[in-house]
Design a protein that fits this description.
258 residues, Undecaprenyl pyrophosphate synthetase, binds farnesyl diphosphate, six-stranded parallel β-sheet, alpha/beta, 43% helix
Length: 258
């Protein structure tokens, strides 16, 4: 299944976002405020991931995408990087069955070769195990960067023999790592910072942005519902005027605008 691009066609606006993308920030501060090592914050972060997967599935969200490790996170102290990779590896082992039982389809996007062969195999197994599931699609972005994604899509296009004159949005989007998903309707960043940090640069073109001061380990169902309520209150115009958007909601006038 392919999805249309927000710059080419206006997508449907549902009561809950169809695709939610999250930058899970604030694990370190959560730990520091409790005089705990940073990794304790990441462990609690993983618990918040479990809860968020359930909460999203219950609310009818179809795609949840989480930024677990950016291509720039290698700049962190070597010990923290090693512990984060360990946590990722043990989560892949311990969570795959649980996700499968819950009907979740798991996808990992990013340049995962850098994590080594063992993690590569675990990713393959977990994706294969859950590939036919029809519930929530959970994507974990690991060693992912939005610029990396655009460049790898372009490289693959050129390798397939596409000439520069025939590259358009649809051709490029079809080669992005998440070509299986619609563009995010809602983007959330926790932890008080207001940045995109090289996440889904191409796909966030028309996403609604929501920034929460809640630290990721504290991000619970109530915090998710606040974000969804904010999303519902937004007027998504996709370049149109407010009057056009109002006309679209009126069956008598819809045909004039659509
Ligand atoms: C940002 O908080 C968080 C990360 C870089 C790692 C995210 C990892 C998890 C939530 C746990 C593992 C998840 C999976 C899916 C295996 P930060 O360390 O930048 O926090 P700070 O800004 O307070 O220092």
């Amino acid at each position: 299944m392919t999805y249309t691009s927000s710059t080419q066609e206006v997508p449907e606006h549902g009561a809950v976002p169809r695709h939610l993308a999250i930058i899970m920030d604030g694990n370190g501060r959560w730990a520091r405020s409790r005089l705990l090592p940073r990794i304790a914050g990441h462990r609690r972060g993983l618990e918040a991931v479990r809860a968020t997967v359930e909460n999203c599935a219950e609310r009818g969200i179809e795609f949840l995408t989480l930024f677990a490790f950016s291509s720039e996170n290698w700049r962190r102290p070597a010990e923290e990087v090693a512990l984060l990779i360990q946590l990722f590896q043990s989560a892949l082992t311990s969570e795959a069955e649980r996700l499968h039982r819950a009907g979740v389809r798991l996808k990992i996007v990013g340049d995962v070769r850098r994590f080594g062969r063992k993690i590569g195999l675990l990713i393959e197994q977990a994706e294969k195990l859950t590939a036919q599931n029809r519930g929530l699609t959970l994507t974990i972005a690991a060693n992912y960067g939005g610029r990396w994604d655009i460049l790898q899509a372009l490289s693959r296009l050129l390798a397939a023999g596409t000439t520069h004159g025939s590259i358009d949005e649809a051709a490029l989007a079809a080669h992005l790592a998440m070509s299986y998903a619609p563009e995010p309707d809602l983007f959330i960043r926790t932890g008080g910072e207001q940045r995109i940090s090289n996440f889904l640069l191409w796909q966030l073109a028309y996403s609604e942005l929501y920034f929460s001061d809640t630290l990721w380990p504290d991000f619970d169902a109530a915090a998710l519902d606040l974000a969804i309520a904010s999303y519902r209150s937004r007027e998504r115009r996709f370049g149109r005027t407010s009057e056009q958007v109002a006309a679209l909601a009126d069956p008598a006038k819809r045909a004039e605008v659509a």
